[in-house]
Structure formats: C-alpha cells, structure tokens
Fold this sequence. Notes:
The chain has 245 residues and is α/β, with parallel strands linked by helices.
Amino acid sequence: MTTLITNDDSYSIGMKILLEAASGFDKNTYAVIPSRQRSAVAMSMTLHKPLRLHKRESNVYELSGTPADCVVFSIYSKMFPKPSLVLSGINFGDNCGLSSLIGSGTVGACWIAATEGIPAVAFSMYRNTREWRDAKNWGDLEKLKEKTSEIIRLLKPKLEPHTFFNVALPNDVSKSEIVFNDRLQMSRFETKIDKRNDPHGYPYYWIYGNFSKSEKGKDLHDVAVNKNIVISKVDLKRMAEHGGI
C-alpha cells in the first residue's frame, strides 16, 4: 500500500504526527501538502495558473495549490507512486457538522480521493484556541500519535473505494472512547460579517464565525462535551445511487 498524507494547514505538527503514524503501517508513505495555509477551500482546484512543487524533506513536498490539488497531483503527475490510501490532517480545529464536511479543505482532499476510487480518512482535533503553531496546544503528542495509529489500525479493514471517514478528536485523547456517529450537526459556526473602514475611509468586510452550541446526540456534542473520538463515514457510491451519506 502507498499512503499519501496531505492537509490544509501546510507544514504543521498535526501533519508530522499523521505522517509518523502512517509510516508505521506503510513504508511507502509520503506527504504532498499546500505551500501555505488553505483552510475552508473545500474541493477547490487550481485550474487557471501553474503549480510549483518544492521538496521540503525526504518524504515531504509542498505544492502551490489546494489540498484537492495535492491529491490530484499525486495521482496523475507521475512524480509520485499513485496512492492507494489518502490520510488528511491532523487539522487544528474539529471538522464536525455538515458545514465543515462540505467546506473544510482537509475533508475536501478526501472527497477528491473518494471520487477517484481511493479510500481516505480525514483527521481533525477539537480546540479552544487558534494558536496552532504552538506545540503545547496540541496536548500530549506521543498519546496523540498512539491514538492516531490506533484509529488507522481500526479503519484499515473498513476502507473501501469511493468512501472516506471523517475523524474528529477531542482536545484530550488519553481517555477518550471511539464512537461511530453519522448524526451530523447542521452548522459548526454562526456566521458573522464585520464591516470596517480602511485608513482611507473605504469600507471592507470580514467574514468570520462564532462557535455554534453543540446539539445533544450529534457529532459535535460527542466530541466537545462527551470527549469522544467521533468517526463518521461518507459513502459516495451510496450517495450517487440512493442519495444521502
């Protein structure tokens, strides 16, 4: 098996943990990641300008595109062995809820992989801070790596073409249980638009969102309140034939 690691945060602690965990199962593991932060780009692809590839480490490459670009490039460029599995993340901030499933760049890489018939798993972690570059905000890194390896081991026999799993980790994985929950909260954020003026007095607008309250029984509540690891399955073949996830 050949495993591709990608994400939407570019070079990050979460990516390195996922790469190390995956390498314990598949020696033919490499990472192709965006050259800069590309959150919330969903499945967008770069079609109207060239892409550039930069080798950062022996098995880590940066591409001047989106997470979806990284997956497509790895499949079709002939620069790398074609992946038989795509692992995306670990994203700093959970991808719970239907809106995140649709809009996340981390998950978007898995949508693209699944449409190409390659099984995939998206990893994200619930966090109360945005300081993703600070290692202490990731918790116990060794326990996180161990739990990530456990999840990969659990999901490998369940992998199928045209499907992917969305894994949301709590902020402390040391005592968390793994649960499967396909009941997705509709929205992860309450959208806000802030109007401001630039130094010349012209208005500009900033789109952002406050965290939504969790709904009992849904994936976000399981992660944020119950402190569980939540796994949701997305089956594209079922969607195409019958509708729904």
